[in-house]
């Protein structure tokens, strides 16, 4: 069985404060992309993991496979089923590691969905979401196979109903910076926000004052497939602290703007940055822009609800992987 594991972008991400349990309270609109990993699952004599580089320059992976989120997802299903479920897991990685695109979380969600079907467990979406929440805040959002609103620490997700939305094109870029999520959130804490209190003002460029207003506007243009309107409403409260901490990410954001992208915004807590474009042709032009030489980059479409589940991913992607100092070729 092969399961598509899409990358995601947060078109809107508000940090509302620090909860009593120490997690940050979030309010976010998240959309899956027609670009991601492939998770291949096969019944076997024992559970194993193989990770194949699909163009992201994986380098050396951690030696303890039990720490991998996909393997942890498999172990959770074994606990739930009360019996061994030996499965060969093969992941073709196209999503950069630690880039804010949900790579580990989407692989875990795909493993949960795929193994549930492969072994005939019949757990249902609600139970799979609950299991996913044990693995990480981003895992449940990939269970709903569409655009979602994510609240709480990320474990509460609701589908926003984008089945008729026109896909949008965007460009992703990553210079290879490592942006530890706890460090980014600590920087957010240090920007004058009192722990436990909501943000006093929207992020720069949001132009709106409340999540409700912001998400209404964002979703209106998202349903219409209007890139300029979406670009005017995207917001990420982690952008300022991340770009302040990591100059390479700030330079990548400036490069996307220089190349003509609209609404350039951080993906999650970094280090990937994205910007909207009007068409695939415009996106391919951005990929070739000299300001982005040295970056990994990709041009991808957003996925309307149900497309991933019913038909597999929309046709990706133009993707480039180069090393800093090497000439760029598209």
Would you write up a description of this structure?
It is a single chain. The protein has 330 residues and is an alpha+beta fold. 31% of the residues lie in helices and 26% in strands. The protein folds into 2 domains: 2-159, Ribosomal Protein S5, domain 2; 169-320, GHMP kinase, C-terminal domain (Alpha-Beta Plaits, 2-Layer Sandwich). The chain has helices at 69-81, 103-118, 125-135, 181-189, 211-224, 227-233, 239-245, 247-258, 280-287, 307-311, and strands at 2-18, 24-43, 48-53, 87-93, 148-152, 156-159, 169-174, 235-236, 262-266, 273-277, 296-301, 318-320. Strands 1, 2, 3, 4, 5, 6 and 8 form a 7-stranded mixed β-sheet that branches. Strands 9-10-7-11-12 form a 5-stranded antiparallel β-sheet, sandwiched between helices.
């Amino acid at each position: 069985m092969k399961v598509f594991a899409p990358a995601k972008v947060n078109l809107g991400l508000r940090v509302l404060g620090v909860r009593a349990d120490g997690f940050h309270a979030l309010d976010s609109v998240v959309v899956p992309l027609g670009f991601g990993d492939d998770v291949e699952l096969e019944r076997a004599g024992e559970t194993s993991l193989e990770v194949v580089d699909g163009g992201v320059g994986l380098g050396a992976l951690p030696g303890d496979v039990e720490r991998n989120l996909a393997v942890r997802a498999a172990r959770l299903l074994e606990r739930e089923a009360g019996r061994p479920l030996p499965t060969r897991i093969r992941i073709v990685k196209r999503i950069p590691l630690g880039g804010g695109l949900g790579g580990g979380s989407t692989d875990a969600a795909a493993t949960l969905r795929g193994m549930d079907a492969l072994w005939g467990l019949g757990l249902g979406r609600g139970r799979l979401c609950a299991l996913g929440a044990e693995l990480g805040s981003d895992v449940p959002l990939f269970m709903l196979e569409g655009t979602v609103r994510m609240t709480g620490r990320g474990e509460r997700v609701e589908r926003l109903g984008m089945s008729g939305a026109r896909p949008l094109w965007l460009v992703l870029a990553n210079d290879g910076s490592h942006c530890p999520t706890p460090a980014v959130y600590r920087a957010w804490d240090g920007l004058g926000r009192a722990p436990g209190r909501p943000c006093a003002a929207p992020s720069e460029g949001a132009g709106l004052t409340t999540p409700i207003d912001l998400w209404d506007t964002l979703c209106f243009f998202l349903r219409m497939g209007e890139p300029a309107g979406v670009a005017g409403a995207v917001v990420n409260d982690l952008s300022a602290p991340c770009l302040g901490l990591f100059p390479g990410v700030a330079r990548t954001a400036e490069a996307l703007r220089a190349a003509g992208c609209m609404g350039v915004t951080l993906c999650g807590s970094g280090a990937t940055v994205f910007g909207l474009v009007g068409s695939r042709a415009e996106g391919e032009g951005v990929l070739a822009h000299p300001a982005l030489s040295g970056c990994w980059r990709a041009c991808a479409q957003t996925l309307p609800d149900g497309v991933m589940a019913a038909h597999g991913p929309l046709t990706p992607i133009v993707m480039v992987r180069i090393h800093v100092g090497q000439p760029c070729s598209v």
